[in-house]
Amino acid sequence: MSSTEPTSDEDVYLVDTTSTARTPGVRDLVMTDRWNTPIERPNGGYVLAAMLRGTGDELGVPHDPLYAAISYLGPPSVGPATIEVEPVKQGRRVVTASTRLLQDGRLVAVMTSGFGPREDERTTELGSPPALPAPDQCLDPSDHGGPTGGLFDRVDHRFATVPGWSTGAPSGDPAHDLWQRLAGGRTIDAYALGFLVDSAPPPVMELGEMASMTVQLTVHFHRRPTPGWIATRLSTRHLVTGFHEEDCELWDESGRLVAQSRQLAILG
Amino acid sequence: MSSTEPTSDEDVYLVDTTSTARTPGVRDLVMTDRWNTPIERPNGGYVLAAMLRGTGDELGVPHDPLYAAISYLGPPSVGPATIEVEPVKQGRRVVTASTRLLQDGRLVAVMTSGFGPREDERTTELGSPPALPAPDQCLDPSDHGGPTGGLFDRVDHRFATVPGWSTGAPSGDPAHDLWQRLAGGRTIDAYALGFLVDSAPPPVMELGEMASMTVQLTVHFHRRPTPGWIATRLSTRHLVTGFHEEDCELWDESGRLVAQSRQLAILG
């Protein structure tokens, strides 16, 4: 579906998340089928990464995003899309923008994001990364009958143990840790963190709920990761009348938190 | 500052969060000094509650909010304000709106919110409410030299123990639980939950950081509380180069989670 046929994992990520300027504030994007979920729709994290990159390119600020808050309004489709970026506020510490994704005149998602420098050195970390065996000691689901194609060719997953839901025996505890990286170890930039918070199987599957759709997702971006795998902590603690939160933490191999997110999702 | 002088706690909350329709999509609000923080600015949770009520009134949907994601762009002031509400998507399960708050032509905050019914009964709660002594066995900070006036006349706080920051001895652990309610026990509606997630002293004060400004705040609304106090759990786990998250859970006296939030804030 892309006019540029990528030849490597490196290219695929860049080509598929890059939009081109049409007029000031309006950008053209082609969403490919290379990030499709099992229901044959582009993954929501891919949508977020493409909208974020389009916003960063449009704003032209030399900073990574600080946060993004996205609302998903309807299912995205493979094919052309329009990204509209409106600068909302040029603050001293945060530049804020409002971004919309449209397909065939239909609003697919709206996002507010903030970009800016981090000038303060104060850092206090009271959390800790997931306790996972080394990636090469973990299970590659594609070796064990896991899904392939689309999204599953774009991200590498490594599980410490076989998830209960994958064997038809959900554990009842919707929490799991796993390793992730972009396919082939491609460099992870800030935009890709927006993808990686929504690229793994949802933990609510451990409650036997196999379909969950994201309504709203907020990501905090803390730093770019060191090269390597991303230790990913996913959990759902509160399922209330059909809606549930899903928390995600991404930690790099040097043990630093690189991003965290929370989403509100609805059972399908 | 209000044209209507309220005569009770009941009135204050309703008057101060209610805006009046000017033209379709545009509403007039008067922000009073009754919700001021110690820096003499209207509290961010009050701003959120007023924007949410304005959005709900404008949309005219018979449902409570499901979520609200607000970005604070500049300091709010006591005085007149304009709320602009744009319906973004009328979905089958979620009605989404984009809302802006302006003062003197200056953009103060932008918010995306979703409203809708909860038709699914499935509920699984894996968390638990804070373990707090009964409210009447807890400390009322106003009896112990705590601040009064403004915000502190609008919300009742009860602490299990004297916070370290209040005695000049921050504990080093930015987490605390407390009871809260609207002043005098006024009924808590869904909009007020948007206030209560941002109405208590920030836990980062236990790191000796006495000034923290919210950049972005996302709230999930689960249910209206039963009458009584709200057990409030606040924590900051990750302070990264001057920015930190703050998580909040609100539990009613019957032990049910009524709302949860996460904000990204910047040290002052």
TrEMBL record, chains A, B:
InterPro entries per the UniProt record, alphabetical: ACOT8-like_C, Acyl-CoA_hotdog, HotDog_dom_sf, Sec_Metab_Biosynth-Assoc, TesB_ACOT8-like_N
> In which domain of life is the source organism classified?
Bacteria
Q: Which Pfam families match?
A: 4HBT_3, 4HBT_3C
Q: Residue limits of the Acyl-CoA thioesterase-like N-terminal HotDog domain? A: 33-113
Organism from which the protein derives:
Aeromicrobium marinum DSM 15272
Acyl-CoA thioesterase-like C-terminal domain span:
135-266
Protein name as annotated: Thioesterase family protein
